[in-house]
């Protein structure tokens, strides 16, 4: 019987499953373990980088670093060092294939479906290669585990911690709202590029003006601020488009106002077409921010 039965990659901050191996097991005990793995995935941010949840027939092992965690369901006979060596291998493969921006912008479960086959291949390798062939890598992991032991949980403790009694009756808990943004559109990407370009132009002109002002008079200070304030506003507009922020509408209005006033103040240093370009980009970015809706994370998107 295989020692590593199931594996998946999840995002630490919200437990969103990114990729998973093919599931060939459908026993009641295994499905119950899968349910508990899903529960644990939502709580990974509360635990150290490595940990195990022990049960009667199966163990859950997890290893996380930065915003990516790998999790596995293993048989009781699977050596702990082997399980964590497997998780470390999957983690390196995944982070080598996808950058942090791509991972952070993932908005739906199993967004990296093409990585499933790699997990499956690594799982097959660890299940069928003898421990003698993996001896060197297992020794390294074993030394790390002895120096810094993983946190040990029990599957029953996980149920109690999540308000479950006997694995069936759920005590009502009021979860904190968990939202994510809708996928980025092509027009949204264009607005980001234009916004970054405007921010760069404002920063370059502002620094250039400050460096070449031999005698900084009141008007020159105003011009420098009129370049730098829109620069900050453009960067903040990019942030508001990519990430959720409360009071978003009010922030968008203030940013748009700062950009418009700053460019109007620069009349004379910029021609009319340049001013209109910066203001048009600001309006486009504001529109994209306000029309990119929030979508609540589905409670039934399981691992």
Automatic annotation (TrEMBL):
InterPro entries: Longin-like_dom_sf, Longin_dom, SEC22a-c_C, Sec22a/c. It is found in: Endoplasmic reticulum membrane. It is a multi-pass membrane protein. GO terms for cellular component: endoplasmic reticulum membrane. Belongs to the synaptobrevin family. May be involved in vesicle transport between the ER and the Golgi complex. This is Vesicle-trafficking protein SEC22c. It comes from Neomonachus schauinslandi (Hawaiian monk seal).
């Amino acid at each position: 019987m295989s020692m590593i039965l199931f594996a998946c990659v999840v995002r630490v901050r919200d437990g969103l499953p990114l990729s998973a191996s093919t599931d060939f097991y459908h026993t009641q005990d295994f499905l119950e373990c899968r349910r508990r793995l899903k529960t644990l995935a939502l709580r990974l941010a509360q635990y150290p980088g490595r940990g195990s949840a022990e049960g009667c027939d199966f163990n859950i092992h997890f290893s996380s670093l930065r915003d990516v965690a790998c999790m596995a369901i293993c048989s009781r006979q699977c050596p702990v060092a082997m399980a964590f060596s497997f998780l470390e291998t999957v983690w390196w493969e995944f982070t080598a294939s996808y950058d942090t921006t791509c991972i952070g912008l993932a908005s739906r479960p199993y967004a990296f479906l093409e990585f499933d086959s790699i997990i499956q291949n690594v799982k097959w390798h660890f299940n069928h290669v003898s421990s003698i062939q993996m001896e060197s890598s297992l020794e390294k992991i074993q030394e790390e585990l002895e120096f810094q032991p993983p946190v040990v949980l029990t599957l029953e403790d996980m149920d109690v911690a999540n308000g479950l009694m006997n694995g069936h009756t759920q005590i009502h808990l009021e979860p904190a709202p968990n939202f994510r943004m809708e996928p980025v559109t092509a027009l949204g990407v264009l607005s980001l590029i234009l916004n970054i370009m405007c921010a760069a132009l404002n920063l370059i002109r502002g620094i250039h003006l400050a460096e070449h002002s031999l005698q900084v008079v009141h008007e020159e200070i105003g011009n420098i601020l009129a370049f730098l304030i829109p620069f900050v506003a453009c960067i903040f507009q990019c942030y508001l488009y990519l990430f959720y922020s409360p009071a978003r509408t009010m922030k968008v209005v203030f940013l748009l106002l700062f950009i418009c006033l700053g460019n109007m103040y620069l009349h004379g240093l910029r021609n009319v077409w340049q001013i209109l370009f910066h203001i048009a980009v600001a309006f486009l970015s504001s529109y994209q921010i306000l029309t990119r809706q929030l979508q609540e994370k589905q409670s039934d998107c399981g691992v």
